[in-house]
Amino acid sequence: MSGKIITGNRALVDWFPECSTTTSDLLDWTAPDRRTACNHEQGFIEVHEVPSGNLVGTATVEFVGKTEATATPVGWSWTEDVAVSSFTGLGNPEGSSAEFVPCPGDCLGVDKSYLPTGVDSWHGSVSLQPVAMPSGTVLESWGNWLVQFNDPRWANPIEIWTSGVVGRCDNAIGNRSPGCVYGNIWEIAWLSRSAAPEFADHVSQAQASGLPGAPYSDTYLTKLDDPALRQANGDKACPSSIPRPQGKSCDEYPFRSTYEGASTGGSDEARSFPGCEMPDPERTGPTGWSRCFILVGDNSSGGGQMSAFYSNERMLDGDPFQVGFVE
Q1: Looking at residue 13, what is its pLDDT?
Q2: Domain count, the chain
Q3: How many CB atoms lie within 10 A of CB 170?
């Protein structure tokens, strides 16, 4: 069930079902995932008499917008619904027009439309596309609606800018075509427990002991891209000096591909758990790292799943995430 902005016997605007119904009461942008964002804003109109300056009318206008990442072409689709929710006196706008203004230089707004949908309500849509995406490109992608309201009784039209939301488009994922996400929105890497049970058990125990990154906690892991720093994390957590049991390899958490890893995390406290065959004590708390010998196949499967998550979610250096498991 979608939320609605109810405007008495005037217009009403549907809240997009992709967003939480509770969010329809908030005046802000919200992003339910890395590819969708919604906003609810209010604009206020005051009409003053000339030359006295007396207030002769007011209006409240609701803006409900949604942006979604598009697969082809690369970029965003943005829809914006506008409705007058209340007015007094001469404040009611009888007409409205709008222009979409994309980020300068790097972005292009195409297929723009802004049309009336009923009494005192309008619907805008636009595609926002990066101009050029050579290999290695990472750029911000954003825009704003400039909405103009008018009434034949007014001497001048009134302009209201909607707030923009900043997305990120890139051509920096080696095995993927260019694409766009909200880079600052955290995501959960849901991995298969049945595909790598020993890997899942180790990560779950490490999180339960207090290390960061558990689903829906207030702690996160942060993607690390630098190959040398990744290597340093792996060398510190799983040095070659520790003999490997037959058929097993060393698994570390937080992962070497994160800033919370053994070296970049800044702690010298290793921990482990019964059955891991490691020379470390059991510890608790948010600092340090865990290591465990697990089956080679499980380690490989877990690493492969994380690589797929990084690629699918277009995770770049510094992006936050959490890790959880499904069967």
Answers
A1: 54
A2: 2
A3: 21
